[in-house]
TrEMBL record, chain A:
Belongs to the sodium:solute symporter (SSF) (TC 2.A.21) family. CDD domains: SLC5sbd (cd10322). One of its GO terms (cellular component) is plasma membrane. It is a multi-pass membrane protein. It comes from the Bacteria. The chain crosses the membrane at residues 6-26, 46-72, 125-142, 162-180, 187-209, 247-264, 285-305, 337-366, 387-405, 411-434, 441-460, 495-519. Keywords: Membrane, Transmembrane, Transmembrane helix, Transport. InterPro entries: Na/Glc_symporter_sf, Na/solute_symporter, Sodium:Solute_Symporter. Its main location: membrane. It is found in: Membrane. This is Sodium:solute symporter family protein. One of its GO terms (molecular function) is transmembrane transporter activity.
TrEMBL record, chain B:
Keywords: Membrane, Transmembrane, Transmembrane helix. The lineage of its organism: Bacteria, Bacillati, Actinomycetota, Actinomycetes, Pseudonocardiales. This is DUF3311 domain-containing protein. Residues 76-90 have a biased composition (Basic and acidic residues). The chain crosses the membrane at residues 20-39, 51-72. Pfam families: DUF3311. Residues 76-103 are annotated as: Disordered. It comes from the Bacteria.
């Protein structure tokens, strides 16, 4: 047991717990938290600084801090995809996010499915978008738990069985309580602590560790040697460069992940909570600062390789848990008190996104399933109550993921979620620009993309971990089969499943759309207006916030 | 594209509300970092980092600058009805935006 680390960790954890509860009184929340605009979107009034800390804390998750260095440690350059992913995402989503913010502000939309409902007047389509968002978010929350657990186990809380998961359950119970109480204000306030700690930890590590291990040149050379050694299946474990077969995978994974991020409920929740278009614009310029951090962090995986650090054996599964590699590096290279700060940064880093994700999923449930199918006349107060309860359910659903699925697959779980959420791109992102795509096309395209995407994921084995199915998201092109025809027979090139499924989805959507328009099938009712997509804060046609 | 236009009070002919601005194309520039053959090698190194790594890190400021250029260059684009001239109804606002566009 690492007592110093535990004490530092617990103290900081206690601090954010207090902040989490105090947040319910922050920024005039008071008694108005019984409206989704307040509980679920923090009153739609976060300025540039709060948004920067919150969205930064939201997008750069425990997944970043734990799984990315772990992937670099295990496979090399491929794990660096997280950098191009978080660099291209901002220019890519800059314009669509502004349109989404404006139209949502005018009509009081809380979720992407709300927008789809208003744009197409289709309950079915909105339901599909909502359910995809909820299901895709679950494993993403689970991933945050994996990050938190990796830290807890490194500090010695590494028992087997249910007892081993107990500290995690306690941490999550506390998180669930203050999220229930304070809504989006809780993660927004905690994000200041989290991001502050992360910047300190990574800067210190980036300055101190390379010199300790003989400079970056030496680190990369020795990491390259370490990766060249044969792994579990007799081939080299990886390389510090991409190989001939995984370059396409690298690029499509970065692109697919960036597109997926736009669609995730936690991204939309963070953006819709901001005060104005200007706040979003400024943030799209300033958020890349976090990406520098991410790049440095990823390369710490190579320092771990060079230092000879070994992942801790997870006593719940009996196997080495590669996700512990980053905490182990800190445990070995830094004094205990500083390692404790680093662990707290990761631990709190898991709480912020987990809270926002569960709020985003709860908003979807409440607005697009509960209000649409269960209680059509729900008052704003009933909506808020329902969302609070849903946030609890979502969190404990994610805990179930951790208890029953091997944590080794944390990153792949999230990749499955990414494949799923990508299938809502035509209905959400394309619809922001045009409603040419027909409802029928969008629905059928969704089913095709989702079905095929999941099937492809099912067929991918992972020889390293001896799993026949769901072994990752890299599809070898020679295995790609269109009803028995193999267009890329013999090709070893790999590609990200998500973009393949999305392409199928889009083709089907377009074909069905052309047919539907030819037969003049009704394409629903559009409640939005072209000018809505450019409305700015203060404009007289925006909807008043949190009015019952 | 002639979609089945939904019935809407005071339907407007200024299309889909899309605004074309050539500066927006700058946002596509960072996508160049996805062309892996251009940087998937070792030299030249910078402070020990292989080209593969520092090249991609260099795209972080490039991306931020691209967004900044678009931000500055499209700053004056009219947002709908930012003027607080006391015209509360949607239709009034719409005619004010279409007037502005004609100018």
């Amino acid at each position: 047991m690492q007592w110093t680390e535990l004490v530092v960790f617990s103290a900081l954890f206690l601090l954010v717990t207090v902040l989490g509860f105090v947040a319910s009184r922050w920024k005039n929340a008071g008694s108005s938290l019984d409206h989704l605009d307040e509980w679920g979107l923090g009153g739609r009034k976060f300025g540039s600084w709060i948004t920067w800390f919150m969205v930064g804390g939201d997008l750069y998750t425990a997944y970043t801090f734990v799984a990315v260095p772990a992937l670099i440690f295990g496979a090399g350059a491929l794990g660096f995809y997280a950098l191009p992913y978080t660099v291209i995402v901002y220019p890519l989503v800059f314009l669509p996010l502004l349109r989404m913010w404006s139209v949502s502000r005018v009509h009081g939309y809380v979720t992407t499915a709300d927008f789809v409902r208003g744009r197409y007047g289709s309950r079915t389509l909105a339901f599909l978008v909502a359910i995809t968002g909820i299901v895709a978010t679950m494993p993403y929350i689970a991933l945050q738990l994996v990050g938190l657990e990796a830290v807890l186990r490194t500090m010695g809380l590494n028992a087997g069985g249910l007892l081993g998961h107990l500290p995690l359950l306690i941490a999550f119970l506390i998180l669930a309580l203050y999220t229930y109480q304070s809504g989006l204000r809780a993660p927004a306030l905690i994000a200041f602590v989290k991001d502050g700690l992360i910047y300190v930890v990574i800067l210190v590590a980036a300055i101190y560790l390379p010199s300790k291990f003989g400079g970056w040149g030496h680190i990369f050379d020795s990491a390259s040697d370490a990766l060249a050694k044969p792994g579990a299946n007799g081939k080299p474990k990886g390389s510090i460069f991409l190989t001939g077969s995984n370059q396409l995978q690298y690029a499509t994974l970065a692109l697919g992940s960036a597109l997926a991020l736009f669609l995730y409920p936690h991204m939309q929740t963070g953006i819709l909570a901001s005060k104005s278009r200007k706040v979003i614009k400024k943030n799209m310029m300033a958020l890349p600062i976090y990406s520098v951090l991410l790049g440095v962090l990823a390369m710490l995986g190579y320092i771990a390789l060079t230092s000879g650090a070994k992942p801790i054996v997870n006593h719940a599964t009996g196997k080495p848990d590669s996700n512990t590699i980053f905490p182990v590096l800190f445990d070995q290279q830094f004094p205990s008190w500083f390692a404790g700060i680093a662990f707290a940064a990761i631990g709190i880093g898991a709480l912020v996104p987990a809270a926002i994700m569960s709020i985003g999923a709860a908003n979807l449930w409440t607005r697009n399933i509960y209000k649409e199918y269960v209680n059509r006349g729900a008052t704003p107060a009933q909506e808020a109550k329902q969302a609070k309860l849903a946030s609890l359910v979502v969190k404990f659903g994610a805990v179930a993921f951790i208890l029953f699925i091997d944590p080794q697959f944390s990153i792949d779980l999230q990749l499955i979620g990414g494949v799923m959420i990508l299938q809502t791109l035509p209905a959400v992102a394309v619809a922001l620009y045009t409603r040419w795509l027909h409802i029928r096309g969008l629905v059928i395209g969704w089913f095709v993309g989702m079905g095929w995407g999941l099937y492809l994921l099912y067929t991918i084995p992972n020889p390293a971990t001896n799993h026949a199915h769901f072994g990752g998201s890299a599809l070898t092109l020679e295995k790609l089969s269109l009803l028995g025809w193999h267009p890329f027979g013999g090709s070893q090139t790999q590609i990200y499943v998500g973009v393949v499924a999305l392409a199928a989805n889009a083709v089907v959507a377009v074909v069905v759309t052309v047919i539907a328009h030819a037969f003049k099938v009704s394409n629903g009712l559009d409640r939005t207006h072209p000018a809505d997509y450019h409305a700015e804060d203060g404009s007289p046609n925006v909807k008043p916030i949190a009015v019952h | 594209m002639p979609p089945a236009q939904p019935p809407r009070a005071g339907s407007h002919d200024h299309g889909s509300g899309l605004r074309w601005n050539a500066w927006n194309l700058v946002l596509l520039a960072p996508l160049l970092m996805l062309v892996t053959p251009w940087f998937n090698f070792d030299g030249p190194r910078l402070v020990g980092l292989p080209f593969f790594y520092w090249y991609q890190l260099a795209f972080v400021p490039v991306s931020a600058i691209c967004v900044a250029i678009v931000y500055v260059k499209t700053k004056d684009e009219p947002t709908s009805a930012t003027d607080h001239s006391g015209r509360p109804t949607v239709d009034d606002l719409d005619s004010s935006t279409s007037d502005r566009r004609k100018r």
